[in-house]
Design a protein that fits this description.
By secondary structure, the chain is an alpha/beta fold. It is built from eight helices and ten strands. Helix 6 runs parallel beside helix 8.
């Protein structure tokens, strides 16, 4: 089988198109085992919840997930204003020795965890001007997605469903519209519940999928991580292969020309 082309984000190539989070695991050892099983190369970290050195007297995630092995993607989960998000990523840059690639998310409220796109736009503008490579979490609005691309975000990450909901790809039509107009990588973020959801996202043409709860919240997180790895790979291959068109009626598998009557 031909080796699939890598996913390129901000000039760096990644063989894995599965990005994983680090929250909600029972301990750091399970975190490590699940990430290894996922095959992910990019690991996202909620700076406001996970210690990567800002709390020197506590165990650090970097003790089990080394920046020498993985691309650490700091994120602004649990930030509700542009100012909070900007400060959080500036701190992350200090902790990670000038690291530029970040995931920006500014939430609207604690109940739905939908993105506050107005605050996200404000934060993105400041961060891009400050030299960050911004991967942005947003709603599945095609107009907003294009706006984030035009302002300089290196990847746009529309939600598939509410964060942690496991509802899957709630609006594939909007995702397709975003993909049709995009010139930067589009990665589905939030809402994935199981392997088939990840495969559908990839079959739509997304460059990758980011998830946390779908793996960490599974009964067997390490096994689910392995399943997600395979689903993302299979979905990408299916997209590149090109599915047959849907038809209302049956179509014979074998040619009917030349059949002896």
């Amino acid at each position: 089988m031909n080796k699939l082309a890598p996913m390129t984000i901000a000039g760096t190539d990644f063989q894995s198109r599965l990005l994983v989070g680090t929250g909600k695991y029972k301990d750091l050892n399970e975190t490590r085992e699940a990430i290894v099983a996922s095959g992910a190369e990019i690991v996202t970290v909620a700076i406001r919840r996970v210690n990567i050195g800002q709390n020197p007297n506590e165990p650090s995630l970097l003790d089990v997930i080394s920046p020498d092995e993985y691309t650490i993607l700091p994120n602004t989960a649990f930030c509700y204003t542009a100012e909070e998000a900007i400060r959080t990523l500036q701190l992350a840059r200090e902790l990670l020795d000038g690291h530029k690639l970040v995931k920006l998310e500014v939430l609207g409220d604690e109940k739905t965890l939908f993105p506050n796109t107005v605050e996200t736009l404000k934060a993105a503008e400041v961060l891009i001007a400050d030299g960050f490579d911004v991967m942005v979490y947003t709603s599945d609005d095609p107009i907003l997605a294009k706006r984030f691309e035009e302002m300089g975000c290196v990847a746009v990450m529309p939600l598939a469903g509410p964060i942690g909901s496991g509802l899957g790809i709630c609006n594939p039509y909007n995702i397709r519209l975003i993909l049709e107009n995009a010139k930067v990588p589009i990665l589905v973020d939030a809402g994935v519940g199981t392997a088939s959801d990840a495969a559908i996202a990839m079959e739509l043409g997304c460059e990758g999928v980011l998830m946390n709860t779908a793996i960490a919240g599974a009964k067997n997180p390490v096994l689910m991580a392995s399943a997600m790895k395979k689903a993302v790979e299979a979905g990408r291959e299916a997209f590149l292969a090109g599915r047959i068109p849907r038809k209302l009626y049956a179509s014979a598998s074998s040619p009917i020309d030349g059949i002896i009557s």
